Amino acid sequence: MPPTMQIAETAAHAPTDDAVIARVLAGDRGSFEVLMRRYNRRVYRAARAVVRDESEAEDIAQDAWVRAYTHLRQFSGRSSFATWLTRIAFHESLARRRYRVRHLPLDEHAAALPASTRPPEQEVGAQQVARALEAAVDALPVPYRMAFVLRDLEGLGTAEAAACLEVPEATVKTRLHRARALLRSRLDAMLGVSADGVYAFAGQRCDRIVAAVMARIDGAGASHITAS
Prior knowledge:
Layout: H1 3-12, H2 17-25, H3 32-51, H4 54-70, H5 81-100, H6 126-138, H7 142-153, H8 158-165, H9 169-187, H10 203-218
Helix pairs in contact: 3-4, 3-5, 3-7, 3-10, 4-5, 4-10, 5-8, 6-9, 7-8, 7-9, 8-9
């Protein structure tokens, strides 16, 4: 069987989120890693969109996963597990950000995009463009950045993004439109380059977060799931 067909077949037979959650709640703690591998990038990007720091985003991702594990029985299924998880990541990120900048004005809408520092055309490669786009995304006000990350980076639909952010769908559309306009003013033709490299989430980062969270879950402080 060709490798592509094997991958498709594996994906088709992958357990649903609900099935994995049921195994975890039944005592199979190791199955939680399946969920982590499935949604680790989204959790990291959600945190990264708020705090604009890679190391802090990793810490927040770990905290969000541990919180999701310990409160797993409280997941009611009214939304998808991914949506519920993304909300946890955003709330953790916003709490961390508020704590860090509590003595500063929080009017993110007053943020201005930095002056262009585009390098000479001949020196701009795929990585340089991705980094330039990442800097421009980081310069967006937080609400616009969240909408852009969920819709354009993670590929969520408007309805799911709205559920994650707990705002009306019309608000997501407005914020995304404004985010794209601000990015166009900063990057011009560079917007034609794929945004997939923004907030890059390589396998090594995923492995690091998974290992840290599983160690915390197995530790004394997070070895059980709280009752609903």
